[in-house]
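hi got a favour to ask and not much time before my train. below you get a single protein, a line of residues and a line of whole numbers that encode the local backbone shape. could you go over both lines and see whether the tokens make sense for that sequence. a few lines back from you is plenty, here it is:
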Amino acid sequence: MKKTTLLLLLLFSFNLFAQKFDGLAKTPPLGWNSWNTFATNINEQLVKDIADKFVELGLKEAGYEYIVLDDGWMAKERDGNGNLIADPEKFPSGMKALAEYIHSKGLKFGLYNCAGSKTCAGYPGSRGFEYQDALAYASWDVDYLKYDWCNTGKINAESAYITMRDALYNAKRPVVFSICEWGDNEPWKWAKNIGHLWRVTGDIINCWDCEVGHGSWSSSGIWKIINMRKDIRKVAGPGHWNDFDMMEVGNGMTDAEDRSHFAMWSMLASPLIMGNDLRTATKETIKTLTNKEVIAVNQDKLGIQGFRFTNENNIEIWLKPLENDAWAMTFINMTDSPVNINHDWKKHNISDDLNGKYVDMKNTNFKIRDLYNHKNLGDTSKNLQATIGTHDVLMVRLEKI
């Protein structure tokens, strides 16, 4: 009885001080995830090829670092001791060797699992095995865990994610914890001290503004996702991000729509997780994904999520405060034909009431930098005139003169 009581006290004492790993994801994570393009059709050679492309295509140099294997990496059953094992046909060398290869490239390695009894694709979930699985991830040198929400029955979401957070902390290897609960239980209200990022919607799909049904659930296009949640930007910041899902850049939309998609994920301070096949990506896709000036907006150290400033005549204007009193400003053409803009800066004072920021544009002058065309556009003493193509974007950075 005394030994049992002591053990319970020790476990209680540990859980009292368990926490997520601090100091990680101070800016939104950048990386790649296998699901959007490959679903469960993944294998060892594919992942190595993707790691090689990170280096070859300049993605690593642009800041991308995480390579995350989504659902389908493990065998259909645990071993006799209840351990997760890699699918021996897809990953004959195992997860430890694959992590070593990825780390040898100067990159970081991520895996997927689920809070339920099975993953969304029917593989072994972590329910009841959280501490055992966390120790396995640590032994494989995993740096990132995406944790899904299928087959969870009636368990409480917050408690389930706390359990895995504590298990990861107990395993003592720092891991970025990605909560993939789809926003059903409003994680922005409770996940700040549990995970480093949390999904705010269901799955994304490669379209501009559509919804595709799959029976009991549906996938949403870019603008459906952007417009789905209200009043959540206040919870985003260094180490705790609203996650608008993996990107569909390079997956079949137009180059213009890809630019707008990438610009908006950067404005929203969402993790920039690629979901395309880098082995066959076009030059234009890589040009968009490696645009350092746009990425810098996403990675700004203030960590403020951007917001819709105006929406007039189907031209949306979004704002994002940046360090050193700079601002990012994005004009998106929501129409199906090119439009001309003539933006009078003096008629549009800039403000972010949530963060106490205000600019009197009649008495303040900014220089204007076009982030996609990499050129200066003068300053705000004159109207900004430009033509924006169908579903395309003009993204600028404003810096005080």
About this structure: The chain has two domains: 25-298, 307-400. Residues 1-14 have pLDDT under 50 and may be disordered. The longest strand covers residues 393-400. Residues 351 and 357 are 5 Å apart (CA to CA).
